[in-house]
Amino acid sequence: MGYDRIDARILEIIQKNNRLTSDVIGEMVGLSATACQRRLKKLRAEGIIEADVSVVSPKAVGRPIQMLLLVSLERESAEIVDRFKKAIKSSPEVVNGFYITGDADFLLYITASSMEDYEQFTRRFFYSNPNIKGVKTMVVVDRVKVGFAIPVEVSSSD
Question: What is the pLDDT of residues 108-121, one digit of tens each?
């Protein structure tokens, strides 16, 4: 997987606004719309672009409660970790999930419509799982920055 400085510029542009047309992006980077489309297709095929998404306001869709959870497993085995990863992926309340190092095994970002909704989630997701050693919950007071933009750098040889 590789990309050049033009691809890097395209990636910077679409991370800010993925609704721009190939004509507009091409004009911004000095390419025709067709050449820009080919590059975007290649970036997607190579997995450099993983998804095209819209960032939705949790409050606007009735999920104003946001929390970060540090989850520790009772013991770490491949089977237990894989099962927990599968549970994370299948739970709509979990917006983001990370397998991490340090004091906990996973970091989860979840949303809920109310504290009662959050309690039901914890009962269903954690209390019924004997492999969970502990959960530390931190309530999000304010989303200071939100997004998925990754700084894109090009090697000095390009």
Answer: 999 999 999 999 99
